[in-house]
What we know:
By secondary structure, the protein is α+β, with helices and mostly antiparallel strands.
Amino acid sequence: xxxxxxxxxxxxxxxxxxxxxxxxxxxxxxxxxxxxxxxxxxxxxxxxxxxxxxxxxxxxxxxxxxxxxxxxxxxxxxxxxxxxxxxxxxxxxxxxxxxxxxxxxxxxxxxxxxxxxxxxxxxxxxxxxxxxxxxxxxxxxxxxxxxxxxxxxxxxxxxxxxxxxxxxxxxxxxxxxxxxxxxxxxxxxxxxxxxxxxxxxxxxxxxxxxxxxxxxxxxxxxxxxxxxxxxxxxxxxxxxxxxxxxxxxxxxxxxxxxxxxxxxxxxxxxxxxxxxxxx
Length: 279
Ligand SMILES: Cc1cc2nc3c(=O)[nH]c(=O)nc-3n(C[C@H](O)[C@H](O)[C@H](O)COP(=O)(O)O)c2cc1C
């Protein structure tokens, strides 16, 4: 068991990590970022990982999508969904989900920053999006990487054991293996560190929250269900997504799937322990 002193120290460390700039921070006065030191800025997006023959252009005619709800009703309806009916979603729906969570709408300066559908501290936008696709019309099941500058996906690999590997990477959460698609967001760390150095990581976690919420609301607007997942296994995500785990590492995931109203009671049943244990 972790000794109490050690636990207390680690808790303090975690709390300090979450706090804003502190007067008792020994590095605050002396820290200089690579941006301040005029070191070259890293690319705004990760370069494609495969050749053009593996690239799939995404449709962008979002006005064709059926989205009736206004923001008020979306916020009222929003909840985590973990029971999926395993129907395929369309490529246009997937494209909208990608755009809503990480799509590029413009640039700041010549190549200083991308401007996206989500905000990001210092407009660093340091996340890459990877997908485990199980059921999307027109796409073969596999692991894909999103190229937001081109509105395209690239196929990284297919795998006969895809669903099980996705579930394993999500700490064994079996329900996620019935999603049509699982989104993974990996931090390409230097993109934020170039500007914020040792102060990047807290900001990046806040960025991840925005991305997740945009995806959840976009899914809700399409009548799909989603659920945030922080419980992920680092090494298994690295293997699945083909990322190095040091410069780029998965932080957050979100399965999205088709849902049915008749499953609402069973969804609530997930929390029956609250009543049983009188919590
Ligand atoms: C950052 C974050 C991480 C989460 N991780 C998990 C997870 O690993 N497994 C899970 O079943 N639910 C996870 N959830 C879902 C929460 O349990 C859920 O949001 C919470 O119970 C409130 O329910 P609601 O979203 O339906 O309002 C996560 C949610 C967030 C925002």
